[in-house]
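Data's thin. Show one?
=====
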Amino acid sequence: MAAINLGISTVVALFFVSALAGVAAWFIFVWAIKDRQFENVEDVAHRIHDLDDASATTLPADQGSKG
């Protein structure tokens, strides 16, 4: 009988641990939404192209002419 009670208490403990992990994940998700972490996720991918274009069009004065 002691083994059965130990199994039940383990299942109950694991249930509460998983419920706590789920609540923590939910709060992190809600925080990310409120902090606008998911706004315009494509912007970072396109920003690298803008940086490459800007650096290619502007050359420092000493690199423009050899001589």
The longest helix spans residues 2-34. The mean pLDDT is 78. DSSP finds three helices and no strands in the chain. The radius of gyration is 28 Å.
